[in-house]
């Protein structure tokens, strides 16, 4: 197929041993949950040569990463390493500088037109992006709407659900996150942990296949943090969701994730199953980071 694009790189780097190219068969860092997708099945999410620059600053540097269906991946690393940017470009909140992203076996950032791959139209972006839900650190709830109204708005406006259908779905989801008695409360009447759980219910109301969590507990005190993490644990165990979580909660990453990816300077420096990653990190930069986290506790 002819590929027509002005982007920098639609293929992985040439080095088969690059840790940044994690899914090569001969790369020992290529790890995924054996229960997360059948062998040979297309990944749920694929980043191919993804680059993001802000002026002269490169935030993501020709990144290659595949996430299997139903896999739970924790993304950790120092501030400014590109973790949140990875989620933002997947959610199409920030445009790519180079490379391509695929979701559920089809291009997200590009589309096929007359046998040629071209930058995606807004219609295409919206359709493929509807498979993704995202929960932000800052909740982003509408302050003038109740928890129920926040949760039904997008399904009615975007999916075309009737108010009755959207309300039934929203009540079920608010019950799932333990807020069935808070449906008529406004954000100002809810704790930070409760607001974040409403935000999770709102994202789930769109029936996504992929859920993104961007440091969702960093603004919460330890008790409220536990409330939100318990909801995420339940989602991971009871629902068929592919999950990417940027987090500073090392204990939760170790317990919850199928794979941990350590980011530094826009690249994946090291990755692996949590037990291996935290017990015997191989890269000097990973070791340095984990020591600093341990000393800060």
Task: Give the helices and strands, then pairings.
Layout: E1 45-54, E2 57-67, E3 72-76, H1 83-90, E4 98-103, E5 106-107, E6 110-113, E7 116-119, H2 122-129, E8 132-135, H3 147-157, H4 163-176, H5 192-204, E9 210-214, H6 222-238, E10 242-246, H7 250-256, E11 259-264, E12 267-272, H8 274-279, H9 284-296
Parallel strand pairs: 3-10, 3-11, 8-9, 9-10
Antiparallel strand pairs: 1-2, 1-4, 4-5, 6-7, 11-12
Helix pairs in contact: 3-4, 3-5, 4-5, 5-6
Measure the end-to-end span.
Answer: 53 Å
Taking the sheet with the most strands, its summary is: 6 strands, mixed
Q: Topology as H/E string?
A: EEEHEEEEHEHHHEHEHEEHH
Q: Please count the helical segments.
A: 9
- Spatial strand order of the main sheet: 8-9-10-3-11-12
Describe this structure in words.
With 297 residues, the protein is of the alpha/beta class. It has a domain at 143-207. It is built from nine helices and twelve strands. The strands form three sheets. A six-stranded mixed sheet has the order 8-9-10-3-11-12, with helices on both faces. A four-stranded antiparallel sheet has the order 2-1-4-5, with helices on one face. Helix 5 packs parallel to helix 6 (222-238). The model is unreliable at 1-35 (pLDDT under 50). This is Ectoine/hydroxyectoine ABC transporter ATP-binding protein EhuA.
